[in-house]
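thread from #wetlab-drylab

HS: before we spend reagent money on co-crystallization trials with citrulline, can we at least see a predicted complex? here's what I'd submit
DV: go for it
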Amino acid sequence: MLKFKQIIVKEPGKSVVHGLTTANLGQPDYDKAILQHREYIRVLQSCGVEVKILPPDEDYPDSCFVEDPAVVTEKMAIITNPGAPSRNGETIAIKRALEEFFDIFEYIRAPGTLEGGDVMRVENHFYIGLSNRTNAAGANQFINIVSQYGFEGSVVPLKKMLHLKTGVNYIGDNTLLVAGEFIEHPQFCEFNQIVVDEDEMYAANCIRINDYVVMPAGFPKTEAKLVEAGFLIKKVHMSEFQKIDGGLSCLSLRF
Ligand code: CIR
């Protein structure tokens, strides 16, 4: 399992209340979102990483979801080309922020689109979801890029989920958390699988940070399954981000 040292997050702006959403959970409360974001930062720090906090950008309501405009590896950073038009310009600020940490940049270019939420890394393999945000041209560019750095990639067509990692996440130890369309998916049959129940679907998006699995608070069945499987858990309240389809992984870049 990779050891992470550095994490980048971006504070939500007041415009976060206008983030894109398909959820019917109402608008996020800005003050509460800020408190939850601070809790997220504290929990990540307690996993042994440095956290760099970028300032908010009111022009981009979804820009706290830094995972989408870039994909970072130990060898280089890939600046994506987000498929959501209102998010496409987020790449400029994220590139600038990453220049402090990376010398080598690669780019996904039109007509290719790709968002980092569709990219799931398992050791040296990248699974790339084909979604409404990531198209085949973007996925193929991504695979060509990572192949030049000793990684492999393959595509996973999505049926319903927003992003690949909305429903499947690698939590180390050859184990995936799977929900919905990814339960018993033929492309993931070689992994141990922890199945997330339909009514806890949001908890499929967890992140492994060093010794811990960080998961959203309020999903007791998934928590019990993770503990039973031997994982060490840390929890973060995510309700305000859930209202705009934002999962736990979307709020950070980890390397
Ligand atoms: C969006 O629809 O783009 C945001 N409201 C949520 C982004 C979630 N990002 C992710 O799953 N990687």
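DV: The pocket of citrulline is lined by residues 19-21, 62, 65, 67-68, 84, 87, 117, 163, 165-166, 244-247, 250 (CB under 6 Å).
HS: ok that's useful, forwarding to the group
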